[in-house]
Recover the amino acids of this structure.
């Protein structure tokens, strides 16, 4: 229908509030506006960060943490790197792990100075207020997620967005929600500076707090691929503020083709995460509903996780055979649950860790488990496709180790060149409309 409506009529519908999000007639809308689902579009996640309970070492530094109060009378400015663009955006703010309600006094979005990630300044005149049901302030209950009103704020594909929050009273708990492995610099300063162009003297920290997603109102054929993973997907070894993790580099490849230019990237990795057991963040089976199945516009899932399960299991033959069997059973559960809501699942083989001081045991039991899991991923035909990340980065002369040119130095994590190799190993044809036409079959 949108294609048949003149632009002037469409603009009038949005500005006057004749059309609401559910397509119902309505009176005037809040200043943030609203978007009709009847106008050949839908919400698609364009950026995400999996929330987790903040560890003591990753809490905001004093004075932003004072006993059981965090960010009292404080402004927090963060930048995020969106994937697909859109005319309208909305934010997802999480209090999943907060020990008390999260009272946010006001939020704004703006364009970072020079379009760069990890900067404290925004372009003059770009700050726009964000509302929740028409209100600037919102209290997010313990364990809850709040989605903002749609905001008429065009974002370009692959651009950076600045989100600034002010908390007048702060969160009354030492338990707060964050994503520690942001690889992006955030800024915090005392007082209300939500609309300030810059934050001179602000304290910098390479973590994201509270913000868990950005959605864009996108064309009807736009969709998202979700990555579930650990620090290898979260980007350890990548460049701070460089956005050169392998999902970022895959997005660049997708943008180069008209057939995949509408595919968004939702990186839901957590450093130290495991498939089977809690560790740094909840296990994959526990967070699958929230971090994958509940994501707007999710159509594909890449599973690249399991190395921490193998690496933290005892280096004995019995323990490694058990973790191998348990990982295979867990992968099958992930596939079953994703297929139930129409999401295709692609499995990535586990990359080498030979020479890593923590995971590489002398007897090679963990290496045997890695090879057994990878063999199942490659040959079981349970995944809808296989991404052979192991083959992409292993040293041909020593397949138990990463190619030296791709090694960040710890023989487990990759550098930007290694992450480029992972991105290059993903066939972009897996994310076209044709890839979703066939059924899943009976498994």
């Amino acid at each position: 229908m949108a294609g048949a409506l003149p632009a002037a009529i469409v603009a009038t519908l949005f500005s006057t509030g004749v059309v609401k999000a559910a397509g119902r007639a309505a009176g005037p809308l809040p200043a943030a506006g609203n978007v009709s689902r009847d106008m050949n579009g839908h919400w698609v996640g364009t950026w995400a960060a999996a929330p987790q309970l903040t560890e003591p070492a990753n809490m905001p530094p004093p004075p932003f943490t004072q006993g059981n109060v965090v960010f009292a009378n404080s402004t927090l400015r963060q930048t995020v790197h969106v994937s697909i663009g859109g005319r309208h955006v909305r934010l997802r703010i999480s209090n999943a792990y907060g020990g008390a309600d999260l009272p946010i006094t006001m939020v704004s979005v703006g364009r970072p100075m020079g379009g760069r990630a990890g900067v404290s300044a925004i372009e003059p005149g770009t700050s726009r207020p964000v509302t929740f049901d028409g209100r600037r302030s919102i209290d997010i209950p313990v364990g809850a997620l709040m989605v903002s009103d749609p905001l008429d704020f065009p974002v370009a594909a692959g651009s950076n967005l600045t989100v600034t929050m002010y908390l007048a009273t702060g969160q009354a708990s030492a338990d707060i929600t964050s994503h520690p492995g942001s690889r992006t610099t955030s800024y915090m300063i005392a007082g209300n500076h939500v609309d300030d162009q810059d934050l001179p003297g602000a304290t910098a920290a390479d973590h994201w707090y509270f913000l868990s997603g950005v959605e864009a109102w996108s064309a009807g054929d736009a969709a998202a691929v979700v990555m579930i993973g650990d620090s290898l997907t979260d980007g350890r070894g990548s460049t701070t503020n460089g956005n050169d993790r392998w999902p970022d580099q895959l997005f660049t490849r997708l943008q180069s083709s008209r057939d995949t230019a509408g595919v968004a990237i939702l990186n839901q990795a957590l450093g130290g995460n495991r498939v089977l057991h809690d560790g740094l963040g909840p296990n994959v089976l526990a967070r699958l509903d929230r971090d994958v199945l509940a994501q707007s516009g999710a159509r594909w899932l890449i599973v690249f996780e399991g190395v921490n399960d193998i690496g933290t299991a005892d280096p004995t033959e019995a323990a490694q055979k058990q973790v191998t069997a348990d990982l295979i059973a867990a992968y099958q559960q992930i596939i079953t649950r994703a297929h139930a809501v129409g999401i295709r699942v692609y499995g990535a083989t586990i990359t080498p860790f030979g020479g890593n001081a923590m995971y590489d045991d002398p007897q090679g039991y963990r290496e045997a488990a890695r090879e057994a899991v990878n063999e199942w991923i490659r040959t079981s035909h349970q995944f809808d496709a296989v991404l052979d990340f192991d083959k992409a980065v292993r040293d041909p002369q020593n397949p138990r180790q990463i190619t030296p040119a791709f090694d960040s130095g710890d023989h487990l994590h990759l550098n930007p060149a290694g992450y480029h190799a992972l991105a290059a190993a993903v066939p972009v044809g897996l994310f076209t409309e044709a890839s979703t036409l066939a059924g899943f079959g009976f498994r």
